[in-house]
Amino acid sequence: MPELPEVETVRAGLAPVMEGARITSVTLNRPDLRFPFPEKFISRLEGQRMIRLMRRAKYLVGELESGEHLIMHLGMTGRFSIEGKGAPGNYHHDVAGDRHVHVIFELEGPKGLARVTYADPRRFGFMDLVPAGELASSAHFARMGPEPLSDELTADTLRLRLAGKSAPLKAALLDQRVVAGLGNIYVCEALYRAGLSPRRMARTVGPARAEKLVRAIKDVLQEAVEAGGSTLRDFAAADGAMGYFQHRFDVYDRAGEACRKCASPIQRLVQSGRSTFFCGTCQR
DNA sequence: ATCTTCGCCTGCCAGC
DNA sequence: TGCTGGCAGGCGAAGA
Hints:
The protein contains 6 helices and 10 strands; from the N terminus they run H-E-H-E-E-E-E-E-E-E-H-H-H-H-E-E. The chain is of the alpha+beta class. It folds into 2 domains: 4-130, N-terminal domain of MutM-like DNA repair proteins (Alpha-Beta Barrel), CATH 3.20.190; 155-278, Orthogonal Bundle (Helicase, Ruva Protein, domain 3). Helix 1 (4-18) crosses helix 6, helix 3 packs across helix 6 (207-230) and helix 5 packs across helix 6. The protein binds a DNA duplex through helix 5.
């Protein structure tokens, strides 16, 4: 499920339990997710206190007192669950019986003991450990584009990053080197809000269109983050399949339904192998 | 170099 | 009911 707003929601749910807590035990139920776990993963984590849990684009980044950073990516189906005193509610996950639980962190924090489990049916997620001082230069982050909700992303920076590109605007925005953290849903939603066609060549975005697009990207992400935050109390309830922002989609998964502005049917097309949803009347 | 397709996995849903 | 095909918000590698 995770694009930037969902990862931020997960971060906000995990932070109260993980920040300041000591990792007393790490259990791996398999040697890999999408990629193998890094060398000495368990021994580099056990005994460490997690100082901060941050987010960069769609990545969770835990800063350890050793100076190393624990990188966690949820892929498409990764989910964290919290059990114990730090958990909101009283959630009990059948960890032993769930074949999709791959990682278990035992934590000792200010509020007591807690267990954080990572489940991922498709195993498109991954975890990594980056040595101290190498976070920004690591393979994950070295070529990553600006963080969309920060001041790094301006109309000028976006326009320059799209300049010269002949790829469709939709495909360019999915490229994490252009802007970091957007996925298929929020690209579709942002293009609709900006009134820009997903088929337009990226390089045709000049200053005025870049301004609209940046505004749309920031707005839709911010609204989604806030919607995720509003359901945070359910973070550890049920199966994590919260429905927060989806009822507010203007175009995503609405093929054939009426555009909320002009009532034309929303169209679906495939670009770079991914579904694009848009209004052919409102988006030019 | 840039852009597109493919592969990784499992679960779910519509249609037969 | 069971089977099949298509689809899914991720990424990086390989191909064009």
